[in-house]
């Protein structure tokens, strides 16, 4: 086995507060006590507010036991949540407050971003723990939790440790010292990993067994199953194993990041000497091996049962499974790199040798072996995580992929957007003809990506009247029809410009490969601007139509990735609007040449105009509210961290403007604080699809303004990336997006609510215990009704 909605009703009206506090003492007093400079209580410390007098004191963590344990890699589609991954360069410098209108905002108004990220992953875990989630989907959420946490340690924790070691880390915007943040991460992640293991051991695995899917250990196999696996071991596993001894002639071997390993203790029967050896579990083999139909055993159990084959003549005394996580983020000094492509390739080789940041071991490990690992790997006791086996539950992606549809979410196949094809047919829609009639607002995965964005580019590649295609690629699939279309276009003589972001985290190697392939086909390939990642999602097609040239554009919130487009919730605008076409032409000229344009017609572009443009619109809502005109702020993003933008939301709330924030992952906003943010609500929706779109809506005095685009509200997006938002002008599209907001934020919709103390509370049932509406299922059902296939 190879692992790997009815029309929504608006929420009830809220009473906006028109009172405004004039002075920070009232605001500071309104904050929860644990946010002040007072000593941190025990419960607060448990929740992540660490404030120890001796920052260097060794933290003693209780080792989890089986009874107490509640237990993306990016290459697996379901785990590809790396766009939410914390930003390594997240600025730990204190945010400089600005006094505005004579009001100084209080200290402690920002939630800690690392704690908030861990809270996001806890929400993923809650989906795995929820008995109402289909069983194989629960297994998949367990895998996603594990994959997310791997990436968090590889990037965020590794980056924080590096800053502490080099002395450049400073107090975070939340007020915590770097060491306090690190200790909070250790404590909180330990709790979550314990719950994760317990969910698997005590809940999901037993329920899978009740459904005929058995995840067992070696001792639970029958003799026939063990014999079958011995044959498999001899022919397919043994030849690729390499036992590595540790003795004066053999130094301790390098342990690669995220590899699963066996620590083996053997004894020489002649001399009586004990020896240590390491056996790496081959990463390319299936994580769980099928011993007999629907009975699976971890691969390390099969290897451990046959260690005598690896150490003939020696006595195998004991073996223990362990797994190491290393710093795997990249550091490339672009200013010093003559060729960014070559510099990145070299750095990818160095990535494998990053310092360790976490050691997972089976809780039964012998203390002598554990001490040896800690000493040789140069890792602290605080970074050791004893857990019940099996380790590395990312392998549950393979279990979740089993063909048992009754244990999964009901299958949904997206149809062609109705504005592209009034009647579903086998023939592809004429995208250009449709766009000459109207703009098309796409909502994936409810609207098919393949018959919209992909068809748009494929039609452009084969259309003899198309003269040029310009495209950004941040992430795409290994067998990308997008790349194939661009290659076909170049080979047919069209001018094709492709901006490949080869620094897209964890996709660097794949993007280097595609960059070279595109170059070889005749595409003009560029890698963006020095010091900036290009994260915007843009396509531009230039077509000869009679005596004029017409430009067709696509601006999206998600990557040009056909596979994730079936799993990620994203928005996209297809348009023939001349202003958008002119904006994209100007922006592509900036990305490929030396243009210094900073203002656009229907775009807001980072790093120059996006943050300032959004803050200006938030401030304008205050003016509208004071004048008695309709005013609101609605923001849907993956992450909300930027302090300047958050402060503008606080000031809008103080003025009485209703502010709704729909966030999937990190959120540093502290909602519901009297005098500061009582007009701010924060919600989070997680489910079968990964909420990925970014939307920004403003009441604008009764003339609503809505933007969509690629940017999250993080430092990296607003200061160190090329991001683009496009203004939605069609009134019907604006209304649809506002209805989406109202549904997502409604108290009758299932979601998590953020409190002023930073705690997220799940609201999945009403007062009578009945399930609340699921926004994703409502959208699925709405599409099915259009096609006459809605669920009864």
TrEMBL record:
GO terms for biological process: polyphosphate biosynthetic process. It catalyses: [phosphate](n) + ATP = [phosphate](n+1) + ADP. Residues 110-216 form the Polyphosphate kinase N-terminal domain. ATP binds at residues 148, 568, 664, 692. Its EC number is 2.7.4.1. Pfam families: PP_kinase, PP_kinase_C, PP_kinase_C_1, PP_kinase_N. The active site is at residue 535. The keyword Metal-binding applies. GO terms for molecular function: ATP binding; metal ion binding; polyphosphate kinase activity. Its cofactor is Mg(2+). It is an enzyme of class 2 (transferase). Catalyzes the reversible transfer of the terminal phosphate of ATP to form a long-chain polyphosphate (polyP). Belongs to the polyphosphate kinase 1 (PPK1) family. This is Polyphosphate kinase. The gene is ppk.
